[in-house]
Structures are given as structure tokens and as C-alpha cells.
Amino acid sequence: MSTVSTKADDIAGILEDEIVGGAIPPGAVLRQETLSERFEVSRTPVREALRRLAALGLVSFEPNRGVRVRSISADELREAFLVRAELEALATEVATPKMTPDDLAEMDRIERRFGELTLELRDQARTGAPRDAALFVEWMQANYAFHDVIYRVAELPLVERIAKGARRTFIGDRAWRARAELDQLYAKNDLQHRAIREAISAGSAQAARTLAREHVLSSNRLIEVVLETLGAAGREPGWGR
Amino acid sequence: MSTVSTKADDIAGILEDEIVGGAIPPGAVLRQETLSERFEVSRTPVREALRRLAALGLVSFEPNRGVRVRSISADELREAFLVRAELEALATEVATPKMTPDDLAEMDRIERRFGELTLELRDQARTGAPRDAALFVEWMQANYAFHDVIYRVAELPLVERIAKGARRTFIGDRAWRARAELDQLYAKNDLQHRAIREAISAGSAQAARTLAREHVLSSNRLIEVVLETLGAAGREPGWGR
DNA sequence: TTAGCGAATTCTGGATCCAATAGACGGAGA
DNA sequence: TCTCCGTCTATTGGATCCAGAATTCGCTAA
Fold it and tell me: Taking the model in full, what pTM does it have?
């Protein structure tokens, strides 16, 4: 079954990844003509893709002006973490009684890898080694993989969709600038994962829920640190062409 | 300030209302040509509007086939209520310490009106009077208005957007078919509103949170009843033209 | 020198046109 | 009669074309 797709969908997917990945920075203006040249299509599918991005809230749409990548404010970021905290708590609670031994084993495997990566990250942060973007990305992915097991077991597609949408407001790469301050927070993250896993293993849905909620909320603290060290970097380049 | 808007946005807005309001039933196929004739525009803005609806999850998009209004399954409906329960709980908790006397007064006003409407509805349900759609709509709106005060005070736009998105999966009119069974649930709804209001008034954010969560979850029970009485009405008309 | 005004340019929004796909219809053969 | 296959039509996806809005730029005048 060759899953058919339209060019508009392909383009939207690519742009989506680039925006959430930070390749296209917040505040950037997306020109239809430029995009149509880049993807070697006409402006029609490009515009449909942009409509989708706008509906997803990734870009803001100003009639007769153009679209620009939305830069999230500190408030929005905080709120996104609140939402994630509630929904991850819910997913964890629901997933706990549904966990099979296989699922738990998978969580263990991911958690071990996550622990290793965390150690490496902390080492780098301590020794002041040059930043290793690939390592950070891998750490992030392992982090997400841990939570993804929970989502998969919970079988709550709507919750998963919303939570992952809120997840993307964390523009990964930026955290690096503040990595020196993040040492203990890295460690805390790892410990929390273990606590969640143990609560699930013990079959305590309520404890797992509470731990998951606190886990996300303390990630929020991590973000606060990042925002502080970043300072007021929020410049809005204007519509200039 | 004459808020400019594109035709695509206008069309999307209208279709959105019609879909969530039930004027366009789930399973209906939306033909581009038909819509373009109806709105007296070309197919271009229609397609952009449909893209937006697809991104919002209101319709499903099948390449080279068309779009159809998504019919929510019982599982999806249940999940939407879980999400709403968590987010309303969050919003209520956040809103509680921010409530001003004016806000509380407004809640009182709405609650009184809601109580009256609830009584009328219960009377109708008991006496088996002919269904009064306008009354039900008004009841629903008063219900939403109550919660909207909380959202406004909480100042969490993202939470509000998501929760209201989940809210719309409740296709209002259908509930009527089961109204006889809903008598006590109506009453419960009213009592819960009062309890939430009192907890907020007392400044107990945690109690308000718990009450709000239970309130939405018991609405879920209401929906279960509706679904049961509705039976398996889920027909998928196929793509036939 | 600078403020204001108007033309020119650039870009978006929408309409129209063409290509490609999917389902419907109908005929031929087993 | 039923199945298979080719054709035909309805409908979507994408390209191109045109109109209108917004910004830029340059000219004029105070």
C-alpha cells in the first residue's frame, strides 16, 4: 500500500519539522515564491501547506502581508508545560494498569540508555567540553522515547497529539546555551524517570500520575533557567523584504 | 479597525460552526465544486479552508478522493472528556486565586440563570413535553458561559483553545433523544456548578480543581447514557456520489 | 533637511485552466 | 450469470494568470 500524499502535505510536513527543530527560526517570514522555488512547485500547494501550519499554530497569518514563524513568549512556554504536565499525568495514570512485562522491559532499556546519555551530558557540562549537538539530540530523543512508551500503552491518541504538540514549543537547540546551569536538572530528570517507572511497575496509578505531573513541571523549571540565561533575545525583525 | 480577513478564513469559520453545530452531519462528504458554488468563489479558497479544517481534525482528507466530516467514535468522545476534565481542573485551580468580587458576581448571575434553565429542562423531561431545541441550546450556552468565566480569569489561552476544541465533540442536539434518562444528571450538573463556585469563593484552589475535574467526568457519564440510547447509529455512507 | 505625497514594485489572494486519479459503466468471455 | 477488463466521467491536485493590497522609493515643496 503506497500511502499517497499530496505535495501540500509533504511540504507542510517538512516545514513543520524545520520550524519545531529550529532550522527556521521564530520570527522568520515565509515567502510563498521562495518556498515554491525551493520545493519546485507552484505557489498553490505552498499556500495550502501554510494554511495547515497556521491552523496548527506554528505560524501566524496576516492577510495580504504574509506568514511568519510564531515566536513563543515565555508565558506561552510556561502554559505549554502546564498542559503537558496535566496530560502526561493523565496518560501515565491510564497506562499504569495496562503495562505488560514487555512494555516495562522496553522502558527499562530506554531508561538505561537515557541514564548513560545523561551522564555524558553532565560530564560535558562539568568539563566545559565543546557542545555536542548530536549528543543533546540523542538525549532528547531518549527522553521522548521514554514518554512515548507511556503514550503508546495508554492508547489515548488525542492526548498524545495535544501533548506532543505542546512538546514542540521547546526549541531544543537553545537549551545548550545554558547548559552549565543545567547540570543538576539533568540528573533530576533521570531520577524522576526511574521513579515513574517504579511506580508504574508497582501498579500505583495515582503515584505514577503525581510523579509524571511533577516531572513535567520541573522540566518547566529547567526552561525558566534557559529563558533567564537567554535574556531578552526576542527581536521581531519586521516585515521587511 | 476593519479586521481584514481572507475568503478562505471566512469559509473555514462558517464550515467550522456548521460542523460543530451539527448542521453538517458526521460522515458527510464536502465537494469542492459544491462549496465554491455556495459561497460564490472559486475552488481555490475553498480548498484552503478545507486544509484548515483538516488540520483542526474536523474533517479527514483523502488524497484524490475528497474530504469528509469526521464522525467521532465513542472512544474519541470519552477521551475528549478526559482531556477536558484535566484542563478544566487546571484552569479552575489557576483561576481561583485570581477571582475578583466582580468575577464571582458574574458567576453567580450565570449560575442563577443556569439553575432556572435546568429546572425548566427537568420539567420538560418529566412531563414529556415536546422537545424545545431553543431551550436546550440556551441551557448549553449558560453551561458554557459558566466555564468561560473561569477560562477568562485563568488567562490560559492555550488551555482554553484546546479545551474548547474538545468541547465541540459534543454534538449538542443529539443529547435530546435521551432526555428522559437525563433528569437527575441535569440536576447534578447544577449542583456541581454551585459547589465549584463555592470552592472558588472560599479560595480553595485544590478543592475547586477536584470539583471541576469530577464535574466534567460526570458529564462524561451523561454522554455514555446518550451513546447507549442512541445505539449503534454509526453508518459510514461511503464515497458514492 | 525633512515631511508628505504618489508612482512603482513586490507580494498575496483568488480565478481559471490543465493534468492525473478514482470510481462507474458497459461489453466480452468463461 | 458472473467476472474481468477497458473506457468514460466526475472530481481532485497543481500550474498559471490576473487583480488588489502593502511597502518602498523617489520626487516635490515647505
Answer: 0.84
